[in-house]
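Weekly puzzle thread! Below is a chain. First person to post its structure in token form gets bragging rights.
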Amino acid sequence: MIVLAVETSCDETSVAVSKNGDTILSNCVLSQIDTHQAFGGVVPEIASREHVKGMTVVFKEALETAGITAQEVDLVAVTQGPGLIGSLLIGINAAKAFAFAHQKPLIGVHHIAGHIYANRLAGPFVFPLICLVVSGGHTELILMRDHYQFEKLGETQDDAVGEAYDKVARVLGLEYPGGPHIDQLAKTASADMPMPVSNIDGYHFSYSGLKSHVINVLNQKRMKKEPIDVPVLAASFQAAAIEQLVRKSRAAVDAYQAKMFMVAGGVAANHHLRERVNALFSDVLVRMPPLEYCTDNAAMISLAAYYQFQADQKVDSLDLKGYARLKLTP
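Winning reply:
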């Protein structure tokens, strides 16, 4: 089965082609980072306009790179949500137009399911498994007992971990997107500054306290006109942020006797998180996506669509709608 997928949930315009749920034939991504850097974050209206401008380019490139014609596509997939509604609708309408013009079945895919299935590129899934989803908008622990069976064990009760990274980076004066800058700085220093690690109950997460602590430390030093060691602060913040993730994940793996642990989402590219996961989960199989598939891309949507279709054999009509908020689990 050849799946063509479209992803426009935020500020990447992406079209990809995959085969049989494990082979990527093409993955074309048009990034808008340079456009949004001047604003310190994604501007939804600008993102939508950039998607319109780039859509036909990435469609053409994806098909040419894959070496296929439109008629060879078996299934058209598109991110249905969650995301920026204006951006989502651009991708959905493009996918609908392609499906209608070439008489191909259409399927809507959950954005987080896509991030989870990016791990398929690292190898087959072994169930039961625990997946840690970490991005700018999500911090969740998901239990999977089989393909396309998602059970949410816990989630952030305030800020997502990626959101906390970006906000801390902003107060440190780092460029958008801030997460990679903090990760790079942290490599150059030791985590010598005490930071709070949330002990919220169960498998839930909380990052508002850690973020506020960093802001308070900065404000106090600035008022006292004390020097700020930015690399040490970045390393200390990162160590506390990652410690909460791995501690909760380890508890879930043990409680559910998981055979595999996976990490999904943009923060899965974080250097320190990958190190801690490899060190702490050596007794179970570990899957983390290749770095180029951690951030938003259509390849992950195409993989998820394949397994979604295999699970229920259902397709959507041309009335498919987009949703800014969309639950992964019932």
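Puzzle host: Confirmed. Bonus trivia for everyone else. The longest helix spans residues 230-255.
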